[in-house]
Here is the input.
Amino acid sequence: MIDPVLLRTFLAVAEAGGFSEAARRLDLGQSTVSQHVRRLETALGSVLFERDTHSVRLTGDGETMTGFARGILDQQDRALRYFSRPGPRGRVRFGVCEDFLLGHAADVLGRFRGAHPGIDLELSVELSEVLHSRLADGDLDLVLAKRDSGQGVRRDPLVWVGSPGLELLPGEPLPLVLYPEPSVTRARALNALRRNGVQWRIGCVSERLNGLRVALEAGLGVGLFAASVVPDGLVPIAGLPDPGSVTFVLSHRGTARGSAAALADAILSAQWSRPPLTLRQPPLPLG
Here is the structure.
């Protein structure tokens, strides 16, 4: 490993065109400058300067070494600047449910990145119950997902939604477009329909939000979402049992510290807003 002090001295001599001027610029004795250059030449096994009584000139190896020296010192300076930045550093294994990720997380994570550039994220996007299970197993540091208890970040009413042109046949079971088990919104949807005696069938299941959205836009059935994260292009459906509300919960194992605490603070201090949804569909013919 080459001592960066030797590289700086070498570049000073090359730029000044002599040892005495380099010594003046570096505020060193000329003998020290000469010693630094000899040590560098010894380490490299190459002569870097041609010296005579009147001038000092770079050799071919010396010319080549100027590029290497500047590159090495530049990398060192960049590393020092990077690690001297204030604020926490580290990595957070962050789990988030997909509908919240699409609805609000981009803004939150963007603001967090601007405030804490030294923290890296390992993002996991899965069903809420899966995320909570992984948190309990120690696979995640922080989870933002739907649950019935915990530190609530936001509480939203659940809304039945479908395509604007959705047509349902009277007397037929209500076709549903849902996440697979274990899904919080799936359980809420089925429980609400059972309590009110509404006949239903699972028309489509998808593990991903984009799959649900495409199926709903295609008119395959009715879905259930928190009001603030209803995908664009879908409208609320009237005439179905009230499924209640759901809480987006921030969870961590024990006490959040360091990088995880910084992300938790950013999430809890964020503000989310979305225009209220209005019912556009007439009551469904479920008789």
